[in-house]
Amino acid sequence: MPDDTAHALGASRTFWELVERRAALTPDRPVLLQGDRVLTFGELRSGAEQAAAGLHAMGVRPKAVVAWQLPTRIETVLLAMALARLGAVQSPVIPFHRDREVAFALRASRAEFFAVPGTWRGFDHTALAGRVGARGTFEAYGALPAGDPSTLPPPPADGTAVRWIYWTSGTTSDPKGVLHTDRSLIAGGSCLAHALHLSPDDVGSIAFPFAHIGGPDYLVMLLLYGFPAVLFEQFALPDALAEYRRHGVTVAGGSTAFYSMFLTEQRKQPGTKLIPTLRLLAGGGAPKPPELHHAVVREMGVRLTHGYGMTEVPMITMGSPDDTEENLATTEGRPPEGMEIRIADGEVRLRGEAVCAGYLDPAHTAEAFDADGFLITGDLGHLTPTGHLVLTGRLKDVIIRKGENVSAQEVEELLHRHPAVADAAVIGLPDAERGERVCAVVEQPPGAPPLTLGDVSAHLRAEGLAVHKLPEQLEVVDALPRNETLRKVLKYRLRERYSGTVK
């Protein structure tokens, strides 16, 4: 069971209070590991205070909006906590975003300051800031502003004030600014931490952009349980394996795509554990095919727990290592105490402390919540008798073929059972006769024989799929298009690519 200390820390009102309380308990224990660098909890507190004083001298005041577009580095975490110490409103921007997305985020949030990494991975972010007219641009990669902490105003005390603006992924329209408080992020991180049954002896890893909503989620977990995480500024396998092994990582993951990447590497050396210390893969952010779960557990010799979250609610449910294998493979886990899940006409709705405070645009807020204050997710699912949540797809992922509903997720999960399929995305395409037709887009593993539509249909029929749900079009690609955060498949790009094709 989670220890009393972690539960007590989870009651912290603000992020800064959580940082201070952890630093007082274990100042010399490491919290962040990156290459040869080690930052302790005490150094996190003192470094953030010095950076806060430097920012204050630059003119950053409580409630000022500060946007930052930074890679996953120790300095990035220090900057985020410095802003938390000041009580500023921070707006993280994924470092892979370019002029259009950055300009929108700065304009919509009315950012007064903008932190960038200079030239990073061959791209000049400072020049980007100039092109989009960013105010108060400063570089925060190798060094942060520094000053005397005695000059700082008192730390914020209200954990329910909006202090974070995160951005949903814009596809065919502009992204939405999601408003979070310190308490909503602490509540989300607490759900993740307590579900995973972690201890101070664990070593975690952050292999995704810290600017993602999962960044503070994970940091809360470190602060609650007092263990460190390895940071990856650039993540790729097999290159990253040396760092996992060097630091003795026990908990890794990120999303479904990360599980697949680890499994691919494991299959290069069957019988030899990929990361000797690894005991748990955990993540969320995308559907997890049961077959992938079973393959990871069987071939890697670790537990795999998967959860359900979104930018609006960073952690909704999470599988636990003591769940049954069936529940871990086929559900998203259970909600924590305080998270209410309502199923309305098959759709998942949420209410609780981890739910965002709404959106920058009040019109979006009005559309997103029902009369009882539940967030309308657009996800379809049901609760099992044990309280586990099963997701069956998204409303926009329901393909309506000749008036019959087809769940894209159902077809995808069955496709994953085919040995010649490495990954799959099922989409609906406009069709004059059917309304929509079912199209399967697949990646194949190296050396697999070419797939045909007949092969796919025969496999799905053998798996018991109803005839009206069978794909009528098959596209084989080298790689499915994915975003740069949790590597989710971008189905809108597939729809754009194949909408004009008829097979």
UniProtKB/TrEMBL annotation:
Belongs to the ATP-dependent AMP-binding enzyme family. GO terms for biological process: fatty acid metabolic process. Keywords: Ligase. Residues 20-359 form the AMP-dependent synthetase/ligase domain. One of its GO terms (molecular function) is medium-chain fatty acid-CoA ligase activity. SUPFAM superfamilies: Acetyl-CoA synthetase-like. PANTHER family: ACYL-COA SYNTHETASE, MEDIUM-CHAIN ACYL-COA LIGASE ACSF2, MITOCHONDRIAL. InterPro entries: AMP-bd_C, AMP-bd_C_sf, AMP-binding_CS, AMP-dep_synth/lig_dom, ANL_N_sf. Residues 316-337 are annotated as: Disordered. This is AMP-binding protein. Residues 410-484 form the AMP-binding enzyme C-terminal domain.
